[in-house]
Amino acid sequence: MVLKKWCIFLMFCVLSALLVGQELDVERGHYLKKTYQVIKKLEAAERDSTLYAVELIKLACLCCENGYSVHGYLVMERAFIYLVSELERENPRIVPLAAHTLAQLAALSDFHKTTPAEKIDMYYRYAIHTLKGFEHRGVAHQYIDALVYGMRFYAKQGNEEMVKECYTEMLATRKRWENITDKSLFYFSNEVAAYYIQHSKISEAEKVLSVLPSAPNRFLEATTLNNLANIALCKREYAKAADLLDRAVSGYYYHKNAVSAMIGTTCPPTFLPELSYTAKLYNSVGFKKEALKIYKALQDLLLSSLESYIPYMLEADRVHLWKMMADYFNEMQTFAIKNTDLEGIAAFLYGNNRLKKNIFLSPPRPRPIDLDIFQTDPYVKDLSDKLNAYITSEIKSRTQLTSDIVEIAKNEMLGVAYEREMRSYMTEIQQLRLFKLKGWADIQKMMNSNDAVLDFVELQESPDFPKTYGVILLKKDSKQPEFIHLCSHKQLEHALNHKHRDELLVSLLWSRMSEWLCDVNTLFFSPTGLINTIPFGGLKSDGSYLCERFDIHYQMNIETLDIVNSEKGKMRMDQSPKGIYLFGGADFGLVVHEMDDVRSQGFGYLPGSKDEVNAIFQLVKAPWKTYKFMGKDATEKNLRALSQNPDVSVLHISTHGFYLPFDRGIETPGINNNGKSGHFEPLLRTGLMLSGANYAWKDSMNNDFQNDCIVTAMDLSNMIFSKAELAVFSACNTGLGGIKDGEGVAGIQKALRLSGVRSIILSLNDVPDKETAELMTGFYTYWQDGYCKSDAFIRAQRDMKDKYPDNPEKWAGFILME
């Protein structure tokens, strides 16, 4: 074990030299410089020393600032262990540092719910008591931090005595130290006032707000006005409350970075809890319209403050924000579902759902309009190469399985630094337009008369309540969107695993929507959660398949509906040359008997894959150009070589796909271990097999991730196909992946969105070799003949339905995601 840890450490040092060694040549790289300095100082510090503990704390803070709060918590815990050992040596210099670290650790423990409340209480009491004793040594700010963290914890616990004690100490400390700013006082006092209001201590809240000086800015003034409005509501002074709320909402818009400032914190911007409570107060006295108005304002504030940050958001940022905001989103959705008869409620629910899907479901990274920037801008190319080298490196993959959290955190922060720097630079030089969420009326303008949008939504009142599914329906002539409740998560899960799966899905989902859709012929699906795994075209209702009665479109983003409709039904609108790159007939190596039944051992040869690629190669004519990689040429190396190639219009891969369940008990670094994986990251557990992949698949110790011919979704996400109009993954289960609330399907679909591909054909279940080849050749025939790709796919699938009317498993599993 000791040898293994030293090997990991040495590999990290080598990687650091390769990836960070040229850092001094980078003049612009703020993120790179900051991260490199933290790592360099940490590695220079002597282990088991106070200096090492200090540098660990800096690393922990860096993790939290970048949305990796779990890593930050674990590193902070490690730092505190070192500090405790110093305390045992009676080193008084590090006592305040240890106390402040303990307060930070308590806040993170509370945020992640990793520690019992009694222990967190003990942490705070020790930290506050200790820092108070050292206040005269210049640690007043650290003392204030501990009081703030503690007050938030005690407020959640309903411990009024400790809330009051923390607040009293805050006022006393401010009097003793003039450098404690009014800004700190405002944040703290308003949180205390909000606590008193929520516990019906109105006179106490008024007393706290009465001693506040003039607000230092409009945003903090808005927080005070919001608290005063809530007091007025509690006194039933409704006219006064309405005036105060209008002024508060106006003031909240002055803090455009409110949401981005949440990264690295454990507390949301004040307008989230304050306006949420205002809506609850209105709702409690039966003022539903006023409550809805407040929730709409809250929804709009979230959007306006997120817009400026979208180009810079990493996945970790989105996960962190969702963790912090999920309760508020669920609260708004619960309000909507309980008030379905309220005018405008479906429109509100639609806006809330689109906000969640567009912000938190991994929007594409800011790729350039064309690929020239990657060839002409040396800084972007250098960053891109280093980022890809880091992500596909052995140390990156191995450290997911090691217990050394410090090594994991250093590596994650290194990757984040490259990613942030590249996004920041590209956003700046391209002057990217900020994300704008379209309302339902904007979507309606894009629709044709016979279209219907089906925007699926997950509803959950709280973590203790069961999750349910519903759908928001919109048609061209709708005066308002329509909401229909469908079923519970448990019911849908049961149906998906039942032998009469399709019949149950029709009963749970389609039968509840069908009456509303009787006068349309085109459906635009925006799925969520388990709905992502359902190929609706193969469901049968009233004696016919849905794909017979409707043109079905799956949308990555419903905001692109106008692009699909502009292409639909127009023959030969785009006959520009397309470079079609085909992979098939892969030689996986290591022939394994009965491979179809023993996927944990490897994968068998697909003769239909070879036929499929050859048929497409033959039928595609000029001006389109085809290139094929067959047999031993269908390798990961050749696929990687296509990244950043502007000639790639279509990437077609016919092979085996896989999705492995996670097993936390597996500690080997390979992708596969008897049909399971020890990698927590879903993008490392789903992917494609190319020539030679069986060698790595059987050898669970293999970790040559760049050359093992197992192309994971992680690999795909870091290739660049910004010019690709379509990616076709003619393989089993390529549409599956880990499904997490707030993140969508973490698999090939997500990876290709990140790589810049516009549309994707993928499968939602096991698909047969021979019939898949028939479907694909039919699709390319129609597309070559001049149909747009969505019409071509619909026609090809209907042809297969006519040929195999009693076997939807032979053709229904594929969908085109646009």
Fraction of residues in helix: 40-55%
Strand order of the largest sheet: 9-8-10-14-17-18
N- and C-termini, Cα separation: 48 Å
Largest sheet: 6 strands, mixed
Low-confidence stretches: 1-27, 363-370, 594-600, 735-745
Count of helix runs: 32
Say how many strands there are.
18
Q: Quick one: overall form?
A: globular
Q: Mind telling me the C-alpha Rg?
A: 28 Å
SS class? alpha/beta
Beta-strand share of residues:
5-15%
Averaging pLDDT over every residue, what do you get? 79
Q: Could you describe the 3D structure shown?
A:
With 818 residues, the chain is α/β, with parallel strands linked by helices. It has 32 helices and 18 strands. It has a six-stranded mixed β-sheet with strand order 9-8-10-14-17-18, covered by helices on one side. The longest helix is centred in the middle third of the chain and has 26 residues, at 405-430. Mean pLDDT is 79; it is low at 1-27, 363-370, 594-600 and 735-745.
